[in-house]
Amino acid sequence: MKRIAILTSGSAPVATEMMDTLNRGSRYRIGMVPESLAMNPERLADALKQEGVEFLILENYTQSLPEGFGVPYMVISEGESVTDATRRLNVECPEYGPERRWAQTLREDFAVKTQTPPPMPTEAEEIEQPQAPEPQAAYFNPAPSGLSQGNQASAPAERKPMPKSYLLWAILATIFCCMPAGIVAIVFSTQVSSRYFVGDEAGAEKASNRAQIWIIASIVLSIITNSLYTPLMFLSATM
After folding, report:
1. Given this model, what pLDDT does residue 63 score?
2. Helix (H) or strand (E) holding 32
3. 145 and 192 in contact (C-beta within 8 Å)?
4. Per the domain annotation, does 156 fall within a domain?
5. Alpha-carbon Rg of the chain, whole angstroms?
6. Angle at the Cα of 166 (from 165 to 169), degrees rounded to 5?
7. For the stretch 132-152, what's the b/e string if a residue is b when 16 or more beta carbons lie within 10 angstroms of its beta carbon?
8. d(CA 188, CA 165)
C-alpha cells in the first residue's frame, strides 16, 4: 500500500475526488497535508519522510519545492480530469510490486486498475515472492514532529469485515426444504459480497439478515408442509 499526500494552496477538486475514490481500494492511502506544513517547503520533506509518505500530488500549489526535494511528485494540470490524473498516478507513482506481478499473471492492465484489489497469489507464488508486511492503516499524522493539527485530515476508518452470506445454507434449504423461499435466500446471499465490495456495508448487512430470514422461512415451511402432508398420505393409504 502506497502512502500519498496532497499539497495545495487553495482548492483541489481533482485531488480530493481522487482521495475519496482511491482510499476505498487496497493500493493507496491518500491524505491532505496540514496547511501549516504545506506552506513550509523547507520542513516539508523531512516531515513527509518521517511519516512514510512515498509520493505527492500537487494541485493549485503556489509554493516552490526546493531542488532535490527527495519525495517524488506529480502536478495536476488545469483542466485535467480525475480519470486522466488517476491513470497518470499509476504510471508516475512508484510501482507496487506484488500487485503488478499479480496483474501480469492474470493478464490484466495494472495501469487502469484503481479500486478493485487483485486476487491473492497462490501458495507457490507466496513462497517465491514473499510479500512485505503491510503498513498500518492510520495515515499521515505529523503529531510526533510537534506540528499543528488544526487542518489535518482525519485518517480513513478501517472497513468492517464482510457479513456472512449464508450461501451454502441457502442452497441446502432450496434443495431439501422449501424451494421458493430457498431461491429468495440465494438471491439475498449473493447480494452480500457484491454490495460489500462496492462500499455499501449497510446494504451488505441488510442482505445478510434477509438471507438468514428466508433460510429460516424455508426450513419452517418445509416442516409445516411435511407435518400436514405425512398424516394425509397415511390416512389415504389406510382407507
Report:
1. 78
2. strand 28-32
3. no
4. no
5. 26
6. 160
7. eeeeeeebbbbeeeebeeeeb
8. 8
What is the number of structural domains in the chain? 2
Check if the beta carbon of residue 163 is closer than 8 Å to that of residue 204. yes
Say how far apart CA 14 and CA 11 lie, in whole Å.
Answer: 9
- Residue 67 to residue 167: CA distance in whole angstroms: 58
In terms of domains, do 62 and 113 share one? yes
pLDDT digits (tens, 9 = 90+) for 167-208: 999 999 899 988 999 899 999 999 998 888 888 889 999 999
Statement to judge: residues 130 and 184 lie in one domain: no
Q: Name the more confident of 101 and 117.
A: 101
Residues 223 and 193 in one domain: yes
Mean pLDDT of the chain: 75
Distance CA 235, CA 2 (A): 72
- The alpha-helical segments, DSSP class H, found in the chain are 13-22, 35-38, 41-50, 82-92, 97-105, 123-128, 167-176, 179-197, 201-238
Q: What number of CA atoms fall less than 13 Å from residue 17's CA on the CB side?
A: 10
CA distance 139 to 90: 20
Q: Could you tell me if 7 and 124 lie in one domain?
A: yes
